[in-house]
Write a structure and sequence with these properties.
Elements lengths: L3 E6 L3 H12 L3 E7 L3 H10 L3 E3 L11 E4 L6 H10 L3 E5 L6 H14 L3 E4 L6 H6 L8 E9 L9 H17 L3 E9 L8 E8 L4 E10 L3 E8 L2 E6 L4 E7 L11 E7 L5 H15 L7 H26 L1
Parallel strand pairs: 1-2, 1-4, 2-3, 4-5, 5-6, 7-10
Antiparallel strand pairs: 7-11, 8-9, 9-10, 11-12, 12-13, 13-14
Helix pairs in contact: 1-7, 3-4, 4-8, 6-8
Length: 318
């Protein structure tokens, strides 16, 4: 079978992992990696036995699909160039800086029959995949995504860096229009907001309270969902789920009348699963797991949260 020809644009921290995963796939040929720092691209190319380029234009005509793993401000221009040359793209989150840019990428890809997948990695966490069979109609959600400070990805706010993961997951499970947003956040170390909280109110009545911080003393990625007769707690890092569900047949136990289930999963490789899903979508010409529209929806909410934080902080500083 003919191998899918792929490339990676951006060979920084995450881009190198993209190259590594592609290089290991039997049905993929890693044609080349690109970085404006040619020496960095050469280091990665040497490690994974491929070619190095200093500009993505050198991939035109050589590849079928590309991972776009460059800084957020360059997502739109790089993805647009690739789409114009009939190349399917996986764009790391957030897919662009504005919803207008996202809309243009989506329109253009649809007009050419091309695929856009957005890199919302947490969708491929085994615990999140398992939630699909557990979540029915959540009415209250609380998420915490905390990270020890790293001098990386600070070119955007914590909302676009971390919180957007939980926004995407919540939108995927609630599937209702957001009618109100209340948000607050401040910059602490970087020049952008480093800690933020948002309350999302849905038309269905569901409330989501979302917190993200990149100035924590510990790493934590958890979400708690409440629906009729059940409470579900998910630990993304440990890939485990606790389900506490009403069961009138249970008289004793830790909580009388409640059944407690601990679900654990074999440690998965979410990035590898994400890239395999992209490759599958490209080969079969089918919608990817995380479409451009889904990426756009999460971006829209993230930008609304950021605007409210900016407006609040401006009033506070007056």
């Amino acid at each position: 079978m003919k191998k899918l020809r792929v490339g990676v644009v951006g060979t920084g921290y995450l881009g190198k992992f993209h190259a590594e995963k592609y290089a290991r796939m039997d049905d993929v040929e890693l044609v080349g990696v690109v970085d404006i720092d040619k020496s960095q691209a050469e280091d990665v190319a040497g490690e994974f036995n491929t070619k190095a380029y200093s500009h993505h234009q050198y991939l035109f005509g050589k590849v079928d699909a590309v991972s776009v793993v460059v800084p957020t401000p360059a997502h739109f221009s790089v993805a647009r160039d690739l789409l114009e040359n009939n190349i399917d793209v996986l764009i790391e989150k957030p897919m662009s800086e504005t919803t207008e840019q996202a809309d243009e990428l989506i329109r253009f890809s649809e007009s050419r029959g091309l695929i856009i997948q957005v890199g919302h990695l947490e969708r491929f966490n085994p615990a999140v995949v398992a939630l699909r069979d557990i979540i029915k109609k959540p009415m209250f959600i609380e998420s915490h995504r905390l990270s020890v400070y790293k001098d990386r990805c600070t070119d955007v706010s914590v909302v676009l860096d971390l919180m957007i993961h939980d926004i995407d997951i919540i939108l995927n499970f609630v599937r209702s229009e957001i009618v109100n947003i209340h948000a607050a956040g401040i910059p602490v170390i970087s020049g952008h907001v480093d800690i933020a909280n948002a309350r999302l109110e849905f038309k269905s009545g569901c409330i989501a309270n979302v917190t993200a911080s990149r100035i924590s003393t510990k790493n934590e990625r958890k979400i708690r969902l409440f629906q009729k007769d059940a409470y579900i707690s998910v630990d993304f890092a440990n890939q485990g789920i606790t389900v506490i569900q009403r069961n009138d047949q249970i008289e004793g136990g830790l909580i009388p009348g409640m059944e407690i289930k601990q679900l654990s999963f074999a440690k998965g490789d979410a990035l590898e699963d994400e890239l395999k899903s992209f490759v599958k979508a490209v080969i079969r010409r089918e919608n990817p797991e995380v479409t451009g529209q889904m990426g756009r929806d999460a971006l829209k909410i993230a930008l609304s949260i950021m605007k409210q934080i900016r407006d609040t902080n401006i009033r506070f500083l007056r």
